[in-house]
Amino acid sequence: MIPHPSPFDVAARIAELQKLLDDDTIAANQNDNIKVVIKMYENGELPKRIGERIFVQDGKVCENFPDFQKGTPWWKEGTDMQMMLAHVNFQPNTHHLGRLWSNMITLALG
Fold first, then answer.
1. Which residues contact 60 (CB under 8 A, 6 or more apart)?
2. Which helix (DSSP H) or strand (DSSP E) does residue 61 occupy?
3. What is the Cα–Cα distance from 64 to 53, expressed in whole angstroms?
């Protein structure tokens, strides 16, 4: 028998997001992102299919990924998980990525 995931409770998710708007530990400039996500649930644009996600930054849905170097809060919403990041200081380090790939190849080849 194939397990079926329980239906996504849109009303409960909207209620969770509404509570976040009242939470003073959430960055004030994150509220615009949360409001966009709530509106998308209300309009039927969310939820997406399992594994699909959207990013919202500065109160706008991003085409692909948020601008990590911009430094403003962004929001990820999807049916696989919800994630909020209030402050971003993302600077890719190619040295670490190269070492990670090297380790993965070593493990794969034995």
1. 36
2. strand 60-61
3. 10
Q: How far is CA 7 from CA 13, 20, 25, 38, in A?
A: 12, 23, 30, 18
Name, in order, each residue with C-beta under 8 angstroms of 57's C-beta and a sequence gap of 6 or more: 33, 66, 67, 70, 72, 73, 74, 75
What is the number of helices (H) and of strands (E) in the chain?
3, 4
Encoded amino acid at 84, one letter? M
| Per-residue pLDDT tens digits for 66-104 | 998 998 999 999 865 444 444 444 444 444 444 444 444
Helical axes 31-42 vs 10-22, angle rounded to 10°: 160
Its pTM stands at 0.67
Distance CA 28, CA 87 (A): 12
